[in-house]
Amino acid sequence: MKPLDLPISLPQAPRILVIKFRHHGDMLLTTPVIHSLKAAWPAAHIDVLLYEETRPMLASHPDIRHIYAIDRRWKKQGVRYQIGQEWRLMKTLRNQRYDLVVNLADQWRSAVITRFTGAAVRLGFDFPKRRGALWSRCHTRLVPTEGHGQLHTVEQNLALLAPLALPAVQAHVAMHYAPADRQAVRQLLGDVRDYIVVQPTSRWFFKCWSDDKFAAALQALQDDGHHLVLTSGPDAREQEMVASIIGRLRSRDGVTSLAGQLTLPQLAAAIDDARLFIGVDSVPMHMAAALQTPCVALFGPSKLVFWRPWQVNGEVIWAGDYAALPDPDAVNTGTGERYLDAIPVDVVVAAARRALV
């Protein structure tokens, strides 16, 4: 493995693969890496390898030539089927003859794929949990992770590009969607054009505010004359939460529920056209920040340094300012406790009204 200070030479139109195996929000936060690579090499062919379910986050990104994916449903077809699919994928990637692989992931699978591509330059992080001969041999350069504890996830990702000595990095996060996504949303909303998007749900309920408090805040905004568009993921529990909140309002006039009805790109289109986004620590919050929609984000016992909405146009309200929170690493993610309940209703209402001025 070469020292970090030795220069790296790439062709004018390099073939680049970016690897990240994580959740939807993580994929969105890789876009600054993609922007930075494209800015440095405008003629580059940039591909991405991810989990299939996260494809919608990058499917319309203009700087990506092709998205390859590992479908975690393959294992349901049996080990033999899964191995066969992954072997075919690895051979396909090797045939692309990449000049550079940027491995943002920390899984052994990502390291083995990185090595198998045969790329001349293979960047990875020197994760303490992965130190050893095998991880080292899978990469040509390993970038230290010291200091990551004080860096946002966007900054951590960009740190992997250090060996390339880019003249500048592009730190903006971007969420792209297709014209058809906006059209689908407009059909669902009918004549409604002036609205607030509210995403009260998360796949983890410990990140959520109580139904009563959300309803009280929304009632105040409804009384102000604002149209509310409530959204959620397709999970039945999330849809039930939205229904519960709406059921606590005095009237359904000026309220539209699109809970469980939107794809992620369609949700992006809805947020992009909204006057305001209100939501908890979840993928839509990151999308709102990326789209620069005015935003009120409610945060609980997550690692705020890592996961606060990057480049947010608005306010982040942290429950830790109103009550003691558990260490994020000690939280039982299956708990029914709503840690955000420490946040007062009037604080959220006031933040929303400031954003709507």
Helices and strands in order, then pairings?
Elements: E1 15-19, H1 24-28, H2 31-40, E2 45-51, E3 66-70, H3 79-95, E4 100-103, H4 108-116, E5 121-125, H5 133-138, E6 141-143, H6 153-159, H7 179-189, E7 195-199, H8 211-223, E8 227-230, H9 236-247, E9 255-257, H10 264-272, E10 276-280, H11 283-291, E11 295-299, H12 304-307, E12 314-318, H13 345-356
Parallel strand pairs: 1-2, 1-4, 2-3, 4-5, 5-6, 7-8, 7-10, 8-9, 10-11, 11-12
Indicate the structural class: alpha/beta
Question: What is the succession of H and E elements?
Answer: EHHEEHEHEHEHHEHEHEHEHEHEH
Using the coordinates above, name the CATH class of the largest domain. Answer: Alpha Beta
- On the 0 to 100 scale, the average pLDDT is 96
Uncertain stretches: none
How is the largest sheet built, in terms of strand order?
A: 3-2-1-4-5-6
Which features does this protein show?
alpha/beta; 13 helices; 2 domains; 16% strand; six-stranded parallel sheet; Rossmann fold; 357 residues
Structure in words:
With 357 residues, the protein is α/β, with parallel strands linked by helices. The protein has two domains: 15-164, Rossmann fold; 179-356, Glycogen Phosphorylase B (Rossmann fold, 3-Layer(aba) Sandwich). The chain contains 13 helices and twelve strands. The strands form two sheets. It has a six-stranded parallel β-sheet, with helices on both faces. A six-stranded parallel β-sheet has the order 9-8-7-10-11-12, with helices on both faces. Helix 7 (179-189) packs across helix 10, helix 8 crosses helix 9 (236-247) and helix 10 (264-272) packs across helix 11 (283-291). The longest helix has 17 residues, at 79-95. The model has no long low-confidence stretch (mean pLDDT 96).
